[in-house]
Amino acid sequence: MSFLDWAFPAFLLAFAIVYLPLRQRVDWRNRVIVLFSLTFYGWWDWRFVALLVFTTVLDWLVGRAVEAEGDPVARRWLVTASVTTNLAVLGVCKYFDFFAQSFSALLIQIGMQPDLPTLRFILPLGISFYTFHSIGYVVDIYRGRLKAERDLVTYAAFITFFPQLVAGPIVRGGDMLPQYRRPVTTNRADIVEAVWLIAYGYFLKVAIGDPAGFLSDGVSFHPAQSSGSYVVLGAIAFGVQIYADFNGYSLIARGIGLLFGIRLIYNFNQPYVATSIQDFWRRWHISLSTWLRDYLYISLGGNRGGRVRTHLNLLVTMALGGLWHGASINFLIWGIWHGLALSVHRMWRDAGGRLEAWPFGPMLGWVLTLIVVGFGWVLFRSTDPDVLTAMLTALRHWDWSADHWRYVRVLATLIAPVAAIEWWQWRRQSLTAPLNWSIWTRGVAAGAMAFMVFVMLGAGSSGFIYFQF
Amino acid sequence: MASSTSSSDFVLWFRDVGGEVWRPALIAGLLVVGALGLYRVDPTIPPVPIGRGFLELMFLSTQMDRAAELPASDVLIVGDSSSLMGLDAAALSQRSGKNVQSLAVMAPVGPVGYAAIARRYLERAGPVRRLIIQLSPATFDMRDAEFASLGFEQMALDGQITRALPWWEGARTKLYATMIDQVMPLPLRGAYGASYGWPADVREYIWSGHGTMYDPTASRPLDFRPIEGEYTVLSGAMARRLSEMGQIVRQLPVGSVKLLITPMRKAPFTPSSRMIRDTMVAEVMRLLGLPPDALLDLPATLPDELFVSSRHLNQKGRAMLTDLLLAQMDLP
Predict the structure, then answer these.
(1) How many other β-carbons are positioned within 10 Å of the β-carbon of residue B279?
(2) Inter-axis angle of helices A439-456 and A188-202, to 10 degrees?
(3) Distance from C-alpha of A61 to C-alpha of A66, rounded to nearest angstrom
């Protein structure tokens, strides 16, 4: 099931009716969460519920075993086994065919005729997300930062809570488990924020992200593209699409969580105002970037192994972060691109470079960041090698016509309302700034957004982009 | 606000949510009512790229507009999408020296719909020397429900695009067409967006193409259903429509009528396919009331690599079919 399914409002209402009377009774409340979350997940494909249950139970058991085990070597082995199992499941489901086909291509290049099998797995929905939830949980116990959850149902609620299950945010045990261990409360402020987030989230996805997708998917990203102008416009359009789509989803998830007393994090913090690539990654898909920092970059040694090792760790982390998005070479290249950008930025900072000290430094930093990120979006979106080749080749040819102006007009119309809200948030230095509007201002804005969702749903909505990761 | 463990907590929650939701719901509701009012006042909706079948609707509306505006021509082509996307009428015009125009649409419009569009054009613009009816055998088994599903046949018969939509669909489509599309015209999606761009560009292409266009979709895995599956059934629904079309066509001011049966893919054609095809085509000729020499002598099949789908030729195939038809354009 997705937030855009027609059945979802009925599902949410059913959940509210069952959950709310029980929300002060921790044990029953968590059972309801697990039951409804598994139903939500199984709505897509019931066959993969078993896999979700398996990994949930496994990591709960491992977590308890790691905490109980006194021998450091045995603890390390347990964690390694858990992480390996999780990554193996993820690897087989998501990456086996990619590596098999890549290896085949390599063998063909050297004159061989391989006949490697492919598995053609259906990618289990949300596997990239719940796998990371589990790995983070086990590693946190190992590092002594978290106490293992004794109750399986409580742990399962943490892993499977349906707003965050299929597309994040990637949650941490330290943030979430205390919420599942105590009775929840919701107050009027939470409800106000929840309603706003849900309205704004749907607006972003349906009225901004999907139409931006018409531009990027239809006009820009295709194998016959020959206009450099359309490549640049396509990078902007896709940047709008993926931000609106994913931030929209994350805001809806947080809003739904708040309605029922569960606080998920904000996954985005105005990433397109970033004045450096490092700043961008503090604002974009925050739950993933911090996860990669804490469980991959630091595990590789972080910045503790000297300058060369630090840059290598950065590159590897970002490359794997790119690959996390999908089993396709373009995601790997995208990750490496960002790794290189972060590396260059770090070198610049280490050499004493401070753009913010220059005249118009922050503005220059902002423009440079947008260029780097925008080029990255061209790599990210070009999942087909022919498309990628066409897009890069087209950058040599520049033209401009009435069609380009039409494209710009549509793009500007889509960006305007989001920019207005984000400017307000930036001025107030708070993502919740719209909550300080008067009740009627907020009501009119949310109502207009809901109406736009109603209208634009007729144009047809594509699925959430991050469902495919 | 403190929460209690009693059912009043449940009620308080709904009260709080209701208290926050009613204003946006009221605003959204008023806007929906306004949109509905707009729709009720004027239910005609210009074709916009939203909703089910909007692409086909765009083709149909463009051809209906052309039927209302085109000046007189020498040759008129009508038929389904195998004609709309399988011929290059502009090239036929240029190379034959005759004014060739197409008002071909797509299969759900149906033979009676094709004839109605042609009649509207001919009654206004004047007679043509030749009428070419192009049909794909893949449409011979269509049922009444398929002609009714999106209402295209009725639109062609009525001469106007009025979609019978549920009120919410009509309201938002109307609003989209009158406001959103004016401010933020969205391009078409997928291959149509990549090849043509915006709906206006498709319309312009059809106009400049003398009523024809190409199918921009990439070659899809072609279904390998044996060809007999597409020939063995001439449905009652199709037979009735062909018969009625024949009656209409006999009243039209045309010099001669020819029938072009769109070639099918070669690979699925089995040895018995030819016999089945010929039998089917003879029946179609009979229903249309056409003499044997009205059938244009074109191959029953073309190589698979000339097709983008089971029904539509790709650009290379389109050029080849155009060449083949040109050779048959022997007008006095």
Answers:
(1) 13
(2) 30
(3) 9
In the numeric block, which tokens belong to residue A305?
């192994």
The answer to whether residues B301 and B263 touch, using CB atoms and an 8 Å cutoff, is yes
Spell out the alpha helix ranges (H) of A112-218.
127-142, 152-160, 162-165, 173-181, 188-202, 210-213
- Does residue B76 contact residue B122 with C-beta atoms inside 8 Å? yes
Q: Give, to the nearest 10 degrees, the angle between helix A127-142 and helix A173-181.
A: 90
CA distances from A24 to A94, A160, A185 (A): 39, 20, 8
Average of per-residue pLDDT across B26-38: 90
- Count of CB atoms situated within 10 Å of the CB of A438: 8
Q: A288-343 pLDDT, tens per residue? A: 999 999 999 998 888 888 889 999 999 999 999 998 888 888 999 999 999 999 99
Q: Is B144 in contact with B137 (CB distance < 8 Å)?
A: no
Residue A48's pLDDT band, with cuts at 50, 70 and 90, is confident
Q: ipTM score here?
A: 0.82
**Measured between CA atoms, how close is A137 to chain B, in angstroms?**
31
Residue B251's CB: how many other CB atoms inside 10 A?
A: 10
Give the position of tokens 């095809």.
B277
Best to test chain A binding among B184, B204, B214, B315 (most A CBs inside 10 Å): B184
Helix axes A329-350, A385-394, angle to 10 degrees: 50
Q: CA of B138, closest CA in chain A: separation in Å?
A: 29
B82 in Cβ contact with B311 (< 8 Å): yes
Does the beta-carbon distance from A447 to B16 stay under 8 Å?
no
Dmax over Cα atoms in chain A, in whole Å?
A: 71
Structure tokens at A111: 């004159």
Segment 283-342 of chain A within 8 Å of chain B by CB: none
pLDDT tens-digit readout, A31-40: 999 999 999 9
Find the distance separating the first CA and the last CA of chain A, reported in whole Å: 16
CA A105/CA A111 separation, integer angstroms: 10
Query: Is residue A325 flagged as an active site residue?
Result: yes
Pair B102, B73: CB distance under 8 Å:
no
Alpha carbons A278 and B327: distance in angstroms, whole number: 67
Q: Which amino acid is at B48?
A: V
Hey, what are A171's tokens? 């949650």
Counting DSSP H helices and E strands in chain A, the numbers are 20, 0
- The residue count for chain B: 332
d(CA B148, CA B158): 14
What would the pLDDT profile of B128-182 be if each residue is shown by its tens digit?
999 999 999 889 989 999 898 888 999 999 998 877 678 878 888 888 888 888 8
β pairing state of B100-102 and B75-79? parallel
Judge: A188–B16 Cβ closer than 8 Å, yes or no: yes
Residues 6+ apart with CB under 8 A from A171: A133, A158, A161, A164, A264, A265, A287
Is the CB of residue B192 less than 8 Å away from at least one CB of chain A? Answer: yes
Token couple for A289? 């970037």
Interchain proximity A454–B51, CB inside 8 Å: no
Residues in chain B within 8 Å Cβ distance of A217:
189-190, 193
Interface touch A458/B50, C-beta < 8 Å = yes
Q: Give the amino acid at A362.
A: P
pTM: 0.87
- β B264-265/B254-261 pair status: unpaired
In this prediction, residue B1 carries a pLDDT of 41
CB count within 10 Å of CB A357 equals 9
pLDDT for res A462: 66
Share of chain A above pLDDT 70, in %: 93
